[in-house]
Fold this sequence. Notes:
alpha/beta; 6-stranded mixed beta sheet
Amino acid sequence: MPPLPAFNNPEALWGLLLIPLLLVQxxxxxxxxxxxxxxxxxxxxxxxxxLRTYMLPxxxxxxxxxxTAAVLAIARPQVRDSRVRDLSVEGIDIVxxxxxxxxxxxxxxxxxxxxxxxxxxLTEFLANRVNDRIGLVVFAGAAYTQAPLTLDYGVxxxxxxxxxxxxxxxxxxxxxxxxxxxxxxxxSEAKSRVVVLITDGDNNAGKLSPMDSAxxxxxxxxxxxxxxxxxxxxxxxxxxxxxxxxTVWRETEIPINPELMQDIADRTGGEYYRAxxxxxxxxxxxxxxxxxxxxxxxxGGASATYREDxxxxxxxxxxxxxxxxxxxxxxxxVFP
Length: 336
Protein backbone atom coordinates (compact mmCIF):
# COMPACT_ATOMS: atom_id res chain seq x y z
CA MET A 1 0.00 0.00 0.00
CA PRO A 2 1.53 3.38 -1.02
CA PRO A 3 2.25 5.82 1.82
CA LEU A 4 -0.45 8.40 2.56
CA PRO A 5 0.51 12.03 1.93
CA ALA A 6 1.01 14.46 4.79
CA PHE A 7 0.53 18.20 4.48
CA ASN A 8 3.40 20.55 5.24
CA ASN A 9 1.02 23.55 5.29
CA PRO A 10 -2.22 22.06 6.71
CA GLU A 11 -3.75 25.42 7.70
CA ALA A 12 -4.26 26.07 3.99
CA LEU A 13 -6.97 23.36 4.02
CA TRP A 14 -9.32 25.93 5.59
CA GLY A 15 -9.58 27.19 2.04
CA LEU A 16 -11.87 24.21 1.30
CA LEU A 17 -14.60 26.19 3.08
CA LEU A 18 -14.83 28.20 -0.13
CA ILE A 19 -16.40 25.23 -1.91
CA PRO A 20 -19.93 25.61 -0.44
CA LEU A 21 -19.79 29.34 -1.19
CA LEU A 22 -18.93 28.63 -4.83
CA LEU A 23 -21.83 26.18 -5.10
CA VAL A 24 -24.25 28.70 -3.62
CA GLN A 25 -22.97 31.38 -5.98
CA UNK A 26 -23.45 29.08 -8.99
CA UNK A 27 -27.01 28.26 -7.89
CA UNK A 28 -27.87 31.95 -7.43
CA UNK A 29 -26.44 32.83 -10.86
CA UNK A 30 -28.56 30.12 -12.46
CA UNK A 31 -31.71 31.34 -10.69
CA UNK A 32 -31.04 34.99 -11.58
CA UNK A 33 -30.51 34.30 -15.27
CA UNK A 34 -33.34 35.88 -17.32
CA UNK A 35 -35.20 33.37 -19.55
CA UNK A 36 -36.04 34.14 -23.16
CA UNK A 37 -39.82 34.12 -23.81
CA UNK A 38 -41.33 32.86 -27.05
CA UNK A 39 -44.95 32.92 -28.19
CA UNK A 40 -44.77 29.31 -29.34
CA UNK A 41 -42.54 27.48 -26.83
CA UNK A 42 -44.10 24.11 -27.72
CA UNK A 43 -41.97 24.06 -30.87
CA UNK A 44 -38.76 24.09 -28.76
CA UNK A 45 -40.21 21.56 -26.32
CA UNK A 46 -40.79 19.03 -29.11
CA UNK A 47 -37.23 19.47 -30.40
CA UNK A 48 -35.71 18.22 -27.09
CA UNK A 49 -32.66 19.43 -25.11
CA UNK A 50 -29.33 19.95 -26.83
CA LEU A 51 -25.85 18.98 -25.70
CA ARG A 52 -25.20 22.48 -24.32
CA THR A 53 -28.07 22.09 -21.89
CA TYR A 54 -26.49 19.03 -20.32
CA MET A 55 -22.99 20.54 -20.27
CA LEU A 56 -23.85 23.88 -18.65
CA PRO A 57 -23.75 22.43 -15.09
CA UNK A 58 -20.13 21.45 -15.83
CA UNK A 59 -18.97 25.06 -15.55
CA UNK A 60 -19.46 25.48 -11.78
CA UNK A 61 -18.23 21.89 -11.26
CA UNK A 62 -14.97 22.65 -13.10
CA UNK A 63 -14.44 25.74 -10.96
CA UNK A 64 -15.09 23.84 -7.73
CA UNK A 65 -12.63 21.07 -8.64
CA UNK A 66 -10.01 23.66 -9.76
CA UNK A 67 -10.28 25.54 -6.44
CA THR A 68 -10.08 22.25 -4.51
CA ALA A 69 -6.92 21.24 -6.37
CA ALA A 70 -5.39 24.69 -5.80
CA VAL A 71 -6.06 24.52 -2.06
CA LEU A 72 -4.50 21.05 -1.86
CA ALA A 73 -1.44 22.29 -3.75
CA ILE A 74 -1.02 25.24 -1.36
CA ALA A 75 -1.25 22.79 1.57
CA ARG A 76 1.87 21.09 0.09
CA PRO A 77 1.18 17.36 0.24
CA GLN A 78 4.34 15.34 0.91
CA VAL A 79 5.01 11.61 0.73
CA ARG A 80 7.40 10.13 3.27
CA ASP A 81 10.36 8.34 1.74
CA SER A 82 11.05 4.79 2.87
CA ARG A 83 14.74 5.70 3.39
CA VAL A 84 15.93 7.34 6.59
CA ARG A 85 18.62 10.04 6.50
CA ASP A 86 21.39 9.82 9.08
CA LEU A 87 21.94 13.16 10.81
CA SER A 88 25.29 12.15 12.27
CA VAL A 89 27.37 13.87 9.61
CA GLU A 90 31.05 13.19 9.20
CA GLY A 91 33.13 15.77 7.43
CA ILE A 92 36.16 18.01 7.20
CA ASP A 93 36.35 21.78 7.42
CA ILE A 94 38.28 22.92 4.35
CA VAL A 95 39.20 26.44 3.29
CA UNK A 96 40.51 26.74 -0.26
CA UNK A 97 42.79 29.73 -0.88
CA UNK A 98 42.77 30.39 -4.63
CA UNK A 99 45.23 32.67 -6.44
CA UNK A 100 43.57 35.27 -8.73
CA UNK A 101 46.72 37.15 -9.75
CA UNK A 102 47.19 37.95 -13.43
CA UNK A 103 49.80 35.20 -13.75
CA UNK A 104 46.90 32.74 -13.53
CA UNK A 105 46.09 33.83 -17.10
CA UNK A 106 49.15 31.93 -18.36
CA UNK A 107 48.30 29.48 -21.10
CA UNK A 108 50.48 26.50 -20.22
CA UNK A 109 47.28 24.49 -19.62
CA UNK A 110 46.14 25.12 -23.18
CA UNK A 111 43.59 25.38 -24.62
CA UNK A 112 42.57 27.01 -21.30
CA UNK A 113 44.51 29.15 -18.86
CA UNK A 114 45.48 28.20 -15.30
CA UNK A 115 42.52 29.89 -13.61
CA UNK A 116 39.97 28.28 -15.93
CA UNK A 117 41.38 24.84 -15.19
CA UNK A 118 41.51 25.55 -11.44
CA UNK A 119 37.84 26.60 -11.47
CA UNK A 120 36.85 23.47 -13.43
CA UNK A 121 38.72 21.16 -11.07
CA LEU A 122 37.30 22.91 -7.96
CA THR A 123 33.77 22.53 -9.35
CA GLU A 124 34.39 18.81 -9.93
CA PHE A 125 35.86 18.59 -6.43
CA LEU A 126 32.64 20.05 -4.95
CA ALA A 127 30.52 17.61 -6.95
CA ASN A 128 32.19 14.72 -5.11
CA ARG A 129 31.76 16.18 -1.61
CA VAL A 130 28.83 15.31 0.65
CA ASN A 131 29.43 16.36 4.23
CA ASP A 132 32.57 18.51 4.12
CA ARG A 133 32.13 22.17 5.00
CA ILE A 134 34.09 24.21 2.47
CA GLY A 135 35.01 27.89 2.41
CA LEU A 136 36.75 29.97 -0.25
CA VAL A 137 39.38 32.69 0.12
CA VAL A 138 40.63 34.50 -2.98
CA PHE A 139 43.78 36.56 -3.20
CA ALA A 140 46.05 38.55 -5.43
CA GLY A 141 47.75 41.62 -3.94
CA ALA A 142 45.34 41.27 -1.00
CA ALA A 143 43.19 38.43 0.37
CA TYR A 144 39.42 38.30 0.88
CA THR A 145 36.87 35.75 2.07
CA GLN A 146 34.71 34.93 -0.92
CA ALA A 147 32.58 32.31 0.85
CA PRO A 148 32.51 31.22 4.52
CA LEU A 149 32.44 27.55 5.53
CA THR A 150 29.26 26.04 4.13
CA LEU A 151 27.60 22.81 3.03
CA ASP A 152 25.74 24.65 0.24
CA TYR A 153 27.86 23.48 -2.67
CA GLY A 154 25.41 24.95 -5.20
CA VAL A 155 26.18 28.46 -3.96
CA UNK A 156 29.90 27.72 -3.93
CA UNK A 157 29.79 26.54 -7.54
CA UNK A 158 28.11 29.79 -8.58
CA UNK A 159 30.71 31.80 -6.67
CA UNK A 160 33.55 29.91 -8.35
CA UNK A 161 31.95 30.42 -11.77
CA UNK A 162 32.08 34.22 -11.30
CA UNK A 163 35.77 34.38 -10.29
CA UNK A 164 37.95 36.56 -12.53
CA UNK A 165 41.48 37.92 -12.60
CA UNK A 166 42.18 41.68 -12.63
CA UNK A 167 39.44 42.34 -10.09
CA UNK A 168 41.77 42.59 -7.09
CA UNK A 169 44.96 44.62 -6.97
CA UNK A 170 47.66 42.58 -8.63
CA UNK A 171 50.32 40.65 -6.76
CA UNK A 172 50.57 37.37 -4.85
CA UNK A 173 49.92 37.82 -1.12
CA UNK A 174 50.31 34.21 0.00
CA UNK A 175 50.92 35.12 3.66
CA UNK A 176 47.74 37.23 3.86
CA UNK A 177 45.74 34.50 2.09
CA UNK A 178 46.82 31.87 4.61
CA UNK A 179 46.08 34.18 7.57
CA UNK A 180 42.59 34.92 6.21
CA UNK A 181 41.96 31.20 5.70
CA UNK A 182 43.07 30.40 9.25
CA UNK A 183 40.73 33.09 10.56
CA UNK A 184 37.80 31.27 8.91
CA UNK A 185 38.82 28.04 10.69
CA UNK A 186 39.56 29.58 14.08
CA UNK A 187 36.13 28.86 15.58
CA SER A 188 35.63 25.51 13.87
CA GLU A 189 34.95 22.55 16.18
CA ALA A 190 35.79 19.91 13.59
CA LYS A 191 38.66 17.61 14.43
CA SER A 192 39.94 17.83 10.86
CA ARG A 193 40.59 21.40 9.71
CA VAL A 194 42.71 22.12 6.69
CA VAL A 195 43.76 24.88 4.31
CA VAL A 196 44.36 24.09 0.63
CA LEU A 197 46.53 26.72 -1.07
CA ILE A 198 46.34 26.83 -4.87
CA THR A 199 48.81 29.29 -6.39
CA ASP A 200 51.16 29.61 -9.34
CA GLY A 201 53.73 32.07 -8.06
CA ASP A 202 55.96 33.41 -5.33
CA ASN A 203 54.92 35.70 -2.47
CA ASN A 204 55.45 39.33 -3.53
CA ALA A 205 52.71 41.31 -1.75
CA GLY A 206 50.74 41.53 1.46
CA LYS A 207 51.47 42.41 5.08
CA LEU A 208 52.33 38.96 6.43
CA SER A 209 55.07 36.62 5.29
CA PRO A 210 54.04 33.08 4.31
CA MET A 211 56.17 31.53 7.05
CA ASP A 212 54.59 33.76 9.73
CA SER A 213 51.20 32.46 8.63
CA ALA A 214 52.60 28.92 8.59
CA UNK A 215 53.67 29.37 12.20
CA UNK A 216 50.13 30.44 13.09
CA UNK A 217 48.75 27.37 11.34
CA UNK A 218 51.19 25.19 13.28
CA UNK A 219 49.99 26.73 16.57
CA UNK A 220 46.36 26.10 15.60
CA UNK A 221 47.16 22.52 14.45
CA UNK A 222 45.84 23.28 10.96
CA UNK A 223 47.81 21.58 8.17
CA UNK A 224 48.30 23.52 4.95
CA UNK A 225 48.30 21.56 1.72
CA UNK A 226 50.02 23.52 -1.05
CA UNK A 227 49.41 22.95 -4.75
CA UNK A 228 51.73 24.79 -7.13
CA UNK A 229 49.94 25.27 -10.46
CA UNK A 230 51.90 25.70 -13.69
CA UNK A 231 55.20 24.67 -15.23
CA UNK A 232 57.27 27.68 -14.28
CA UNK A 233 59.91 29.44 -16.36
CA UNK A 234 58.82 30.88 -19.70
CA UNK A 235 55.18 30.14 -20.42
CA UNK A 236 52.64 31.48 -22.95
CA UNK A 237 51.00 34.65 -21.60
CA UNK A 238 48.27 36.75 -23.29
CA UNK A 239 49.49 40.11 -24.64
CA UNK A 240 46.23 41.41 -26.11
CA UNK A 241 44.43 40.56 -29.35
CA UNK A 242 45.20 40.89 -33.05
CA UNK A 243 43.07 42.60 -35.73
CA UNK A 244 40.81 39.57 -35.91
CA UNK A 245 40.18 39.39 -32.15
CA UNK A 246 42.42 36.40 -31.57
CA THR A 247 44.55 36.28 -28.42
CA VAL A 248 48.23 37.05 -28.96
CA TRP A 249 50.51 34.86 -26.84
CA ARG A 250 54.12 35.56 -25.91
CA GLU A 251 56.60 33.55 -23.90
CA THR A 252 56.89 35.28 -20.53
CA GLU A 253 58.99 34.43 -17.48
CA ILE A 254 56.76 33.81 -14.44
CA PRO A 255 58.74 33.08 -11.24
CA ILE A 256 57.67 30.25 -8.96
CA ASN A 257 58.91 29.16 -5.56
CA PRO A 258 58.43 25.42 -4.99
CA GLU A 259 60.79 25.56 -2.02
CA LEU A 260 58.42 27.97 -0.23
CA MET A 261 55.45 25.72 -0.94
CA GLN A 262 57.36 22.74 0.43
CA ASP A 263 58.42 24.65 3.56
CA ILE A 264 54.85 25.77 4.31
CA ALA A 265 53.56 22.22 3.99
CA ASP A 266 56.38 20.75 6.09
CA ARG A 267 56.01 23.35 8.84
CA THR A 268 52.28 22.72 9.25
CA GLY A 269 52.14 18.96 8.72
CA GLY A 270 50.56 19.19 5.29
CA GLU A 271 51.76 18.04 1.88
CA TYR A 272 53.12 19.77 -1.21
CA TYR A 273 51.91 18.87 -4.71
CA ARG A 274 52.93 20.11 -8.13
CA ALA A 275 50.26 20.37 -10.84
CA UNK A 276 51.56 20.88 -14.35
CA UNK A 277 48.31 19.77 -16.01
CA UNK A 278 44.61 19.50 -15.08
CA UNK A 279 44.95 15.87 -14.03
CA UNK A 280 47.77 16.77 -11.66
CA UNK A 281 45.53 19.33 -9.94
CA UNK A 282 42.76 16.73 -9.59
CA UNK A 283 45.18 14.23 -8.07
CA UNK A 284 46.46 16.85 -5.65
CA UNK A 285 43.00 17.66 -4.30
CA UNK A 286 42.13 13.99 -4.00
CA UNK A 287 45.34 13.23 -2.09
CA UNK A 288 44.45 16.00 0.36
CA UNK A 289 41.17 14.26 1.17
CA UNK A 290 42.71 10.80 1.33
CA UNK A 291 45.18 11.92 3.99
CA UNK A 292 42.67 13.56 6.34
CA UNK A 293 40.83 12.12 9.31
CA UNK A 294 37.08 12.54 9.18
CA UNK A 295 35.36 14.00 12.21
CA UNK A 296 31.84 14.48 13.50
CA UNK A 297 30.43 17.91 12.68
CA UNK A 298 26.88 17.29 13.87
CA UNK A 299 25.12 14.74 16.07
CA GLY A 300 21.45 14.09 15.63
CA GLY A 301 20.19 10.53 15.15
CA ALA A 302 18.00 10.01 12.11
CA SER A 303 15.42 11.89 10.12
CA ALA A 304 12.84 10.83 7.57
CA THR A 305 12.95 12.43 4.13
CA TYR A 306 9.88 13.66 2.27
CA ARG A 307 9.05 14.09 -1.40
CA GLU A 308 6.99 17.10 -2.48
CA ASP A 309 3.79 15.96 -4.20
CA UNK A 310 1.91 19.22 -4.88
CA UNK A 311 2.79 19.48 -8.58
CA UNK A 312 -0.12 17.32 -9.95
CA UNK A 313 -2.65 19.33 -7.94
CA UNK A 314 -1.22 22.64 -9.17
CA UNK A 315 -1.28 21.50 -12.80
CA UNK A 316 -4.84 20.23 -12.40
CA UNK A 317 -5.96 23.56 -10.92
CA UNK A 318 -4.53 25.59 -13.81
CA UNK A 319 -5.79 23.12 -16.42
CA UNK A 320 -9.37 22.97 -15.11
CA UNK A 321 -9.60 26.74 -14.68
CA UNK A 322 -8.34 27.27 -18.23
CA UNK A 323 -10.89 24.73 -19.53
CA UNK A 324 -13.73 26.47 -17.70
CA UNK A 325 -12.81 29.89 -19.10
CA UNK A 326 -12.50 28.43 -22.60
CA UNK A 327 -15.91 26.72 -22.48
CA UNK A 328 -17.59 29.73 -20.88
CA UNK A 329 -16.38 32.03 -23.64
CA UNK A 330 -17.02 29.68 -26.59
CA UNK A 331 -19.28 26.61 -26.75
CA UNK A 332 -21.08 27.15 -23.42
CA UNK A 333 -21.34 30.91 -23.65
CA VAL A 334 -24.60 32.10 -22.09
CA PHE A 335 -26.33 35.26 -23.28
CA PRO A 336 -28.32 37.14 -20.64
